[in-house]
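Re: Re: token formats

Sure, here are both.
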Amino acid sequence: MASGRSVLTLIENHPRLAALALGLLAATGFQPLGLWPVALLAIGLFAVLAARAATPLRALGLGWLFGFTHFTLGNNWIASAFTHQSEMPAILGWAAVPLLAVYLAVYPALAAMLARLLVRNGGAWAFALMFSGAWIVTEWMRGWVFTGYSWNPLGMVLLGPFDRPGIAALSPLMGTYALSGLAVLLGCGIVLLLRERNWLASGAVALLLALAMYWPAGAAREGTLPVTIAKPDIPQDAISDPRFYEANYARLAQLSPRLDDSSDPRLVLWPESGMADYLREGYPQRYYDRTTALGDPLYARRRLGATVGENSALMTGAVDLEIGADETGFVRALGARNAVTALSAEGEIIGSYAKAHLVPYGEYLPLRGILEPLGLSRLVAGTIDFWPGPGPRTLDLGRFGRAGIQVCYEIAFPGQVVDREDRPEFIFNPSSEAWFGTFAPPQFMAQSRMRAIEEGLPVLRATNSGISGVIDARGVVRDYLGREEPGRIDAVVPPAAGPTLFARLGNMLSLAWAGLFLLAGFVATRQRAR
């Protein structure tokens, strides 16, 4: 009891240092650390700190300090990307992470200020409800303001281990952003019960949380479509080096043949950056001569079809070009698309998707006319920017299923991964992840699992060096290959569940939960005032 009081006293006496420390601790709940009890306690303690701020402006400052360390630790993997390019000093990566955190910290700061503004006369439980609702709203804003960056919403700490969904099983009824609000409320509740010395209630809540996090997922349903996922683990430096194009292809080809005599339809999945060949006709020949097998896109496609064999279809990451005349009239590539191309065994293109949610500074350089003269460039090799596609769409591949595509970090955006008017049977998430060190691949996998749960759709991940796997509609990982573990996965595509409430309503469902939390906080505030 004395130690608990001393912790609260220390926090109250040193609010700025406490906010920085608690932000750091809250980020340990994300993968690969997964210290979810620490994260819940940290967010609960921060809520106590923000509630006791003298003014809403003080709460804003404390929220910013909390967010700064929170996002610095959670996004530390971004620095690794700068070690795989030669245009800019690698040390810029260690500046980029805190600079991004300077901006992202605005959102928890706004949540703290809003809650403090709405709860002026104390009332810890009222503040907890208001803070939870405000957190949902500001986290939702983070997902779309300035093109959005929804990486690591707080609700991710409620995702269970690979074989069970944890408290994230509620996300079909709430959405990830509302699950974040629930995480805030749970953390606040535990801390407030401990502060009130209600040991029985706090112990019961802790036990229920542990049971919910590790409760078995239940019986699995089986699908019928065989799938092969190839994971080559090609070094990042070799992916964009023309000297290794054929060796890279051979590496993927060795992982792709059918291993039995079955004539059943089979889907083969290759990662983002899986294919250096340009697969579409119509480009100036010089582009094919630099990259494409025999300088012929038709030959390249037929070779790929023969690689996977009869009764198989291939979906691979590829690059498509946008050809046109520049200001001088010279015909060249004006832009590129980070694409997924689906090919039949005969080498015919049966579907295509262009990544819509591009990575600023990774796939395009904002304000190029200003930043390029200063020595800044994209992290991805090449001098032209990628152009965005139209957004989520479903590829009807006939007997190979109906596929929704989300390339790389697109999978991190709740409510933006599925065409709701044309629901797919599964989501294909190709990625590279050789850029991102040790923290990003487990976080990518966690984001993919969360999309599977809230949408009620299986997710198939094909990565170059990250974590490839088969995730069912419950968020359970059926099979996987770990980071830097080459090989292949031969499995069956799990069946989709029926459309969830979130699949029907999207992020409006999360905002409705925010309204409910805020309304409950308002009622609690009025009751206290009486």
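Second one below.
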Amino acid sequence: MASAYAHMVLDYYIQRLRRNRERREKQLRRLKTRRDVEAFQEKVRRAVRASFGPLPKRTPLMPKVTGRIERPGFVIEKLVFNSRPGCLVTANLYLPRGVQERAPAVLVPCGHAEEGKGYSLYQELCQRLVSCGFVVLIYDPFDQGERHQYVMVKSDLVGGCTHAHNMEGKQLDLLGEFFGSWRAWDGIRALDYLQSRPEVDPHRIGVTGNSGGGTMTEWLFALDERLAFAAPGCFVSTYLANVENELPQDSEQYPPGILARGLEMVDFLALRAPKPLLLLGQRYDYFDLRGLEKAHHDLLRIYRLLDAAERLEIFVGPRGHGMHRENQEAVAKFFSKWAGVDYQEADVEPLDPKLLWATDSGEVVREGGIPIYEFIARQARRLSKLRRPKDRELLRSRLFRLLGIPEDRPLPHYRVLRPIKIGGSNYGRYAVETEEGIEAILFRRLKHPEQAYLLEADPRCLVAVPHVSSEKEIVEGAPVGERGFLVDPRGMGESLPGGGERELFDPYGLDYMFHGLGLMLSEDYLGRRVFDVLQVIDLLRSAGAAMVDLYGRGLGSLVALFAALLHPSVQRLTLKNCPSSFEEWCLSPIVSWPSSCFPRGILRVADIPEMVSSMGGRVQITDPWGPMMG
């Protein structure tokens, strides 16, 4: 059915981020002195460290130069190194001819181009920089260039680099890890290699990248104080602008807890003020130009308080998204100025990407590199061995914290909506206001139409959480009877976002985006759905139910499982098409369950079999689904 609730969850997050913006604006207005700025930067530093977590220990890079390409004015070395043991990174090092030592350098993380370092615009950028006398290191990200992780696994779910990133990101969520940290670690190790070269002045190293490379420019600039100047391109905006414009991002672009700590995207850059910084954009970029201008405005306030306004610049090219010629030249001029070298015009000529391969096959996994899904599987097995049995009360306490659900909840208000007819029967509908801006929709089959206007429950009632929507579940024969209710928690059923059901399963859809926003707000999105069901159970208890049985199917089975563990009134739990375990999802390279089913850090607390076991014999599971939802 058509619904007025399709924008509910999106509008909820927009309002949350607008309130965040207001609080942050007050904080920025309180910055009056250099000391105020330094205190603000320390706050950002702590937040960034907490978000990215402890980084791995440095291990031998084991770099290997596998070939050289001679070009007029410069040489390209083909390079392979280990960012962690067995994790092979392919790169190209551009060296100016005649350079001996102490030249400035630039690290270039790639944006989301399938060719990675071989993408023509990124080659042009490197050639312009090397022509100005910079040593330039550009490296392939996961799933781009020569680092496709799924070359041995064929699936449309990882057919492009962004979908592959989101596959890896959701599996790492289960381990309590952040894919952005994995991406940043590759860049930090690339910087280690760059500093090891005798040609490079370690005090004059900059970083620049476009789109996803702009993201990594921000993250690396914040994480590694060795970088002296930066130029992020076609990424810097505001989180609010991205949400208002319905613009999901890759999993590495959702730093956990950042919004909960009151930060904005640009604060990663403010952390390094007054180092020279150039903000790059495009007039017709899908990253909102207004957000870029707002970021520049906020940074300018900070740079002025540090008496360094001349070190901050902004350049907006005339085109759409991309590191096009005008932006390449702007970077080369800005870096030349602050590195103390003369800017040189350059004639650029991109090569066939295959000529830049550092491996024979063009794929590190075929050359013996360990794919990231194998690292994920190893860590899942380790966590399984480390977990200890927990009694139900301890498990409940840990799950409340993990999911970000308050244990004390005010009784929700509800509204009586118009009854509807489904499959020949009349159903009452109730909008349960679980929190400001969110309504879970409750359905009950009516014996008489008048029953719709009073919400009442039998002493023992059933609550069903659907796979996709209550209406569809009713049509397909949900076993609720006349004493039962069905509930659509947020983002399901009547509040399916955007284009409807497909948004639940789109690896880059709105449901995925809400999961990412939940991570940044330290509020698990699956946990918010569980919260909705807990509120509904509380309401039904006030309406006469003493005991509640829960039924969940598919996506709803996970919501029902957590709700049954967390609410003491639940007596029996029936799960249909429930996953067998979260660990199984980490042992499989490909998982089709959507990101909103992946609670961050759950495998550090418990797995599904342990949760089911804690409920004794009160759980019935039928027709479980595997990693591919079948």
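The radius of gyration is 26 Å. DSSP finds 19 helices and 17 strands in the chain.
- S.
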